[in-house]
Every structure is written in structure tokens, then in C-alpha cells.
């Protein structure tokens, strides 16, 4: 009698394994696609233009499909009045997007805070610089700026 209890217990256990395997295999086909994060609206190329002199004419920002900043191209005019572009590649900088707001963290402690238009193709706001010295954050306003999807 003891052997039959062991056998039925083993059968129950293998039956549960089979059921779980069937549910997990079948469940994968009917799953909903993952919802993209709010930052995904940034995917693509955007042009950031300062409203006042910042030492550059514009920045071209490239975001991946989930809204992480992957490349920054900064275009400025040198002493000989020639356009010069500096490219920062292989970045992976997290951004913050709200219902109508956007916060773009860039290299060199520059940040763009703006408000998106209804079509989510342009954001107007301001540039600022944040520096940290130990536990103190120093914020400097750099003036207005506009970010436009290209």
C-alpha cells in the first residue's frame, strides 16, 4: 500500500509539471506586447537650439527606441567662422518624460527642461547647468531653448 501512495504522489507531481509547462508554453503566444515607456516618444533625432549664446549654435540629439540619449552632436562656429561639429557617441543616458514635460540630461552637466506641444514634436523650455560639490548642487540658468523633432 505504501508503494501505491508513492506512485500516485509521483504521478500527481508529474501531472502538475505537465500542466505548468503547457500553460507557460501556450501563454507565451497570447501575451500582449510590452507597453513602451513614456520616454519612447523621444525615439529618433531632435535638434536643440538655445535662445541665447551658449557657445554653440545647436545640438543634435539622437535617442534610441526606449528614449535613452545615445548620441550628441554639438555644432558651433570657430574663430575662423567655420562650422565645427563635436560628436559624443555610445551614450546611454536616461531621460524623464511626463504627460507634457520633458527633462533631457546631457553630458557636461547640461539639462533641458521643457514642455511638449500636443503633437509631441516640439518642446520649449530652458537650459540649465547642474554641478555637484560634495552634497551641494549648484544650478545655473542658461536661458531659453527649443527642442524640435527632425
Quick gist of this model?
With 150 residues, the chain is an alpha+beta fold. It is built from one helix and nine strands.
Number of strands: 9
Mean pLDDT equals 85
Query: Which bin fits the share of residues in helices?
Result: 10-25%
Total number of helices: 1
Strand residue percentage: over 45%
Q: Cα distance, first to last residue?
A: 77 Å
Low-confidence stretches: none
Class by SSE composition: alpha+beta
Radius of gyration: 26 Å
Order of helices and strands: HEEEEEEEEE
If you had to describe this structure to a student in words, what would you say it looks like?
- β5 (96-97) and β6 form a beta hairpin.
- The chain has two domains: 1-31; 38-149.
- It has a nine-stranded antiparallel beta sheet with strand order 4-3-2-1-9-8-7-6-5, with no helix packed on it.
- The protein has one helix spanning 2-27, and strands at residues 44-50, 58-63, 69-77, 83-88, 96-97, 101-105, 110-116, 122-133, 136-149.
- It starts with a helix and ends with a strand.
- The model has no long low-confidence stretch (mean pLDDT 85).
- It is an alpha+beta fold and 150 residues long.
Amino acid at each position: 500500500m505504501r508503494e501505491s501512495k508513492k506512485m500516485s504522489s509521483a504521478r500527481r507531481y508529474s501531472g502538475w509539471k505537465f500542466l505548468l509547462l503547457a500553460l507557460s508554453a501556450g501563454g507565451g503566444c497570447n501575451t500582449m506586447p510590452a507597453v513602451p515607456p513614456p520616454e519612447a516618444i523621444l525615439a529618433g533625432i531632435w535638434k536643440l537650439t538655445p535662445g541665447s549664446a551658449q557657445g554653440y549654435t545647436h545640438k543634435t540629439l539622437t535617442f534610441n527606441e526606449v528614449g535613452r540619449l545615445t548620441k550628441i552632436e554639438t555644432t558651433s562656429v570657430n574663430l575662423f567662422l567655420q562650422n565645427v561639429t563635436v560628436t559624443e557617441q555610445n551614450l546611454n543616458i536616461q531621460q524623464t518624460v511626463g504627460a507634457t514635460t520633458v527633462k533631457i540630461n546631457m553630458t557636461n552637466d547640461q539639462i533641458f527642461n521643457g514642455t511638449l506641444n500636443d503633437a509631441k514634436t516640439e518642446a520649449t523650455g530652458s537650459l540649465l547647468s547642474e554641478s555637484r560639490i560634495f552634497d551641494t548642487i549648484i544650478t545655473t540658468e542658461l536661458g531659453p531653448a527649443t527642442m524640435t523633432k527632425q
